[in-house]
């Protein structure tokens, strides 16, 4: 199948976006460790706001995606529960959003296979994440190549209309839009066009290497601040954050990525603008400014860390909560997949 010549981005069709009050929101996060402040500011804070704005919201712990990288089974089992606890601690409310584990809804994998058969190899090969990850992993597994199709299946399975994503995922959402179009053209209208909801924080950078994004799977302990970090951990990591040889605090992510990343974090954590953060930094050198940034991060994360600690101690509660979410997700997924199976000609 030939992909359309040009891949449209949701932002080009603002008038077609489902406004708050209608539509269905879907998003996912990999159980690859406790979320960091990049996940929090770039995704989770927004997820919490969206559950209050849309009538139907699903958040998935996408364990099928996580095995595109090697995982220790015991660690993965723990990470799934840890992620459930983390999402709840950040403010996800299971009364407002369906919180579930992707692998427990087998419809995801089946729809993904069907969509794989509608996707051309060149379409996947051009995706920047594949180019970057396959280079790092020396090619990587087939799952790493096709996971954007699984992401499309995750979204389309619930006929989702709005997908909060980070900037790094926009091309994958374009693919989901294309696959909805391709399926609808071939088998008749079924899937609505899903649109991106971009968060205002585009990318929080690694504290160790501000040219890279902050990432859960970054092995460098000083690179990320997790939501479970203690005030001492946070202060130490920010004190050690890589900046440059200029002591003045200014904001220019291109020429001064390290200090600009701290300004971004400060502004987002203290809920102020970048301009206001720079005003507060006036007269401070980067060393003194780091103390101010630490204070803002510690203040924001302390209640989250305490709630996470409480939730982690009750595994049975987390398991029961996920089981309930899995059931609710499956109730929505099953009729859509039954319709897909019928249209494709399986029954
Ligand atoms: P991994 O290292 O396992 O790939 P990750 O930290 O990149 O994990 P994901 O689970 O892939 O995180 O993504 C969860 C959500 O967090 C996505 O919406 C993604 O866009 C967002 N996100 C991830 N890293 C950042 C970051 N550094 N800044 C802003 N948003 C981010």
Automatic annotation (TrEMBL):
Biological process terms in GO annotation: mitochondrial tryptophanyl-tRNA aminoacylation
Any one Pfam family match given in the protein's UniProt record, by short name: tRNA-synt_1b
Top-rank taxon, per record: Eukaryota
Cellular compartments annotated: Mitochondrion matrix
MF annotations from Gene Ontology: ATP binding; tryptophan-tRNA ligase activity
Function: Catalyzes the attachment of tryptophan to tRNA(Trp) in a two-step reaction: tryptophan is first activated by ATP to form Trp-AMP and then transferred to the acceptor end of tRNA(Trp).
Name of the protein in its database record: Tryptophan--tRNA ligase, mitochondrial
The species this protein was found in: Austrofundulus limnaeus
